[in-house]
Amino acid sequence: MASSYVDSVLDDIEANNPGEPEFLQAVREVYTSLVPVLERHKEYREAKILERMAEPERVIIFRVPWLDDGGVIHLNRGYRVQMSSSIGPYKGGLRFHPTVYLGLLKFLAFEQVYKNALTGLPMGGAKGGSNFDPKGRSDGEVRRFCQSFMTELYRHIGQFTDIPAGDIGVGAREIGALFGQYKRITNQFTGVLTGKGPNWGGSHIRPEATGYGAVYFAQEMLATRGDTLEGKTCLVSGSGNVAQYTVEKLLALGGRPVTLSDSGGFIHDPDGIDEEKLGWVMQLKNERRGRIREYVEKYPRAVFVAAGAGAEANPLWSIPADCAFPSATQNEITGKDAASLIAGGVTVVAEGANMPTTPDGVHLFLASGLLYGPGKAANAGGVAVSGLEMSQDSERLQWPRERVDAELQQIMRTIHTQVTAAAEEYGNPGNYVMGANIAGFVKVADAILDEQIW
Ligand code: NDP
Ligand code: 2IT
User: Fold this and answer.
1) What's the gap in Å between 365 CA and the centre of ligand 2?
2) Which CATH number does 56-189 carry?
3) Residue ranges in the chain whose pLDDT is less than 70
4) Ligand 2 pocket check: which of 97, 107, 167 to mutate, most ligand atoms within 8 Å of Cβ?
5) 3.40.50.720, 3.60.21.70, 3.30.300.130, 3.40.630.10: which CATH number matches 209-378?
């Protein structure tokens, strides 16, 4: 009954959103796991909650003209997808990457709704960004792009309306330029963005939060089997914000990270990436804006493997290990990669990236019985500390690092408990995918019913 209803809703969503494969993938994964909830709750069907939650409340698309260092004018497309304000103001990051288009941001905004609900903080879901490629651009070019982007975006956001933050290609430098421009236009110093500098309204631990949170979530999953991260060999992909702080926390907890990657390929360091090497990578990536292949020139015992264009599998995931922390981008673990991870002995996967595993891969992980923490739950630490940054901005206070870190750990623990409980309540103990989707959904669906918007 409920399953044929979900199928027919998915058919309509597919027909109404052509050319948006990532969005349809994200919606399908969530909605197919909600069948047991819809069996029990007729009221969600009657209020057309599924139909609503796949339709953004508002989408803003705008033109972003900017001048390069040679005086040439460029045009990019800017977006903000305001998906849901049911439990709080729209909240979610901005992505600057050449692959950005409406469908990609709709998938990310859709995921954000459930993730934000899981944090227990009052935040709705959104995502935005542009197809602007910051690679190879000077600081001046990035600044002019950010200023032009904010010159339109400012009228659609605000501390009580929509609070953007970073994502791929948007870090401290970009948030600084975006905030500076917002302030010049509005003459208001408010918490309109998160990820701000710690001496101008930002929260301690926000840069670290996503990576630290993913590791805390892995710790919680391992604890259900009486195990810890001590001595575990860990595969980490990406080498940006999430990957760097994943490695930092793994080292603090006795783990052994051995890989990092970027779009050019990956490095494998059989000796392990220690604190000194991580410091070098942070300098390479955050200051010199270099490529991960340079690692092997500095540390010649490591190997670099170039990315295979259009390859069906990434050899990074065939390296024997105990844990995997995909922290680069969507669909970076294919079905073949998931099979390699399982064959290589991995027993924990904690997703730092959003939707890094393809549906085939998810299926294999769930069938294998390994501890699989989907992004919505495992990477919620970033937006959770963004929520804590909003609280600090509102009370015009800054909490000490120790307090923020303790709250982050508590939030990740609570997410784990909620997700586990939802999976059990609906008959699939240990299935974190189902647990995360159901726990996030029920909270938002009940808010929609309470607010009686029909
Ligand atoms: P960064 O821009 O700091 O780093 C992204 C990393 O991933 C880079 O190493 C980049 O390599 C690599 N990457 C990006 N796109 C691709 C691609 N198409 N193919 C191969 N590698 C790629 O971003 P973040 O670390 O912030 O984000 C990483 C992931 O984590 C994303 O999925 C993001 O949505 C998710 N996330 C981020 C949060 C945050 O707080 N920042 C919170 C929750 C999730 P290259 O430099 O070559 O492009
Ligand atoms: O995907 C994500 O959760 C983020 N990029 C962080 C969003 C935020 O508002 O901190």
Assistant:
1) 25
2) 3.40.50.10860
3) none
4) 167
5) 3.40.50.720
Q: Dump pLDDT digits (tens) for 127-148.
A: 999 999 999 999 999 999 999 9
Predicted local confidence at residue 304, as pLDDT:
98
Q: How big is the chain, counted in residues?
A: 454
> What per-residue confidence (pLDDT) applies to 353?
99
Among the bound ligands, the one closest to the CA of 385: 2
Is the CB of 383 within 6 Å of ligand 2? yes
- Closest ligand, as measured to the CA of 135: 1
Q: Report pTM.
A: 0.98
The answer to whether domain 56-189 and domain 209-378 are alike in fold is: yes
Q: Starting at the edge strand that comes first in sequence, how are the strands of the sheet with 259-262 ordered? A: 259-262, 265-268, 303-306
- Where are the chain's structural domains? 56-189, 209-378
Identify the burial level of 112 via C-beta atoms within 10 angstroms of its C-beta, where 0-12 means exposed, 13-18 middle and 19 or more buried: buried
Owner of token pair 């010199």: 288
Structure-block tokens of residue 270: 């059989």
Q: What is the pLDDT of residues 77-88, one digit of tens each?
A: 999 999 999 999
Q: Is 127 part of the annotated catalytic residue set?
A: yes
Longest Cα separation, the chain: 63
